[in-house]
Write a structure and sequence with these properties.
Layout (H helix, E strand, L loop, with lengths): L16 H12 L1 H11 L21 E6 L6 H16 L15 E4 L2 H10 L4 H15 L13 H4 L6 H11 L11 E7 L4 E5 L10 H8 L9 E2 L5 E4 L1 H4 L3 H12 L6 E6 L9 H5 L6 H24 L3 E4 L15 H10 L1 H19 L1
Parallel strand pairs: 1-2, 1-7, 2-3, 7-8
Antiparallel strand pairs: 3-4, 3-6, 5-6
Helix pairs in contact: 3-5, 3-13, 3-14, 4-8, 7-8
Length: about 375
Amino acid sequence: MEDQDHTIQEGDIELSEADIEEYLQNFSVLPEHYDSFVRDNSFSLLKSRNQSGEDGLKKKKKFGLSLSGGGVRGYIEVLILLRLQDKMKKDEVLEDKSVLDLFDFVAGTSIGGINALALAHNISLDQLVTLFKERAKKIFPSGLTLNKIKNIGMIRGGKFAVGKLEKQLTEFFGTTALKDLKKPILVTACSSDHRPIIFSNEDPAHKDYLVADIGRCTSAAPTYFNPKSLSDGNSYVDGGLFANNPSALLAGMMAKKFKVSSEDIVILSLGTGNNPDLPARVIKNMGATKITTILDMIMDSTFKAVSQTMNMFLGEQYIDINPPLKQIIDLADSSKMDEMEKVVNEHSGRIDQLLDEFLELYKNEQE
């Protein structure tokens, strides 16, 4: 297959060197905060291989669901969860359970955060399908993809109007607060002073926040939407800037809450599709390319780095499903729902195999 043409077309917006320098300066402070953030959330518990056996009894495994960011490509996560639901309906052990019943803790970033909040609020997968197929095009108007956008939302304001997104979130969640959700949950965001944030109903300081507001915070992606302000006086943007794959944070919080080691943690991690590699000419000319390229590279690289780390920690108990995309699907391209369905169908064999492995681990713990 020939490389796609990623050159800048007529009508596309080139970023000035000042724009790129300002954006990267804002992003560059996150790693320092992230290091202390991980320590504060007791991720070191995962390094203990003996914790679960302190009392001489084998502890029951705990199961987590991690949903990554990716704009409208979050539809891929819903399609994979639908396959999981179908498998459960055909299993006499699992037929009376919901997808949410399988998990002790759920986590999400950006659109994955909204999906996670929806699941924890008992919103059905069919309702999520409707959200993506019928309403995403109202939130992301056709033809207005990120490669046409001048602004860097974290700095100058987002291109997409937030009203339709906020209306949809309010219709879904109403006045439900984090404390009302059915499962322990964490949702990532970044504060206006560039600190990584976990919103969780496990944190007493967060329990009264409205779910709709947290959904807005985690999905306030630079270039998409303006930051979201909360009653604490801070503004928040998309957590995908530091944890597009929240699996590591999820494992840390599970270890802390349930007092278990990595031996007793199982995580099903769903991605929004693995973009094809960019041609060398695009990387070489990064200073003149589109902001969407920079965002995609940040989100894809953080996802892959966390996946590699989690594979080292959890081994076969970290099940990562992130099907490859044949072509780049813009994070705001609401016209590609059929293409995403094709991706999942084309890779259904491998997806089903990994889902079966997860269900086998779950059922083994029920015996």
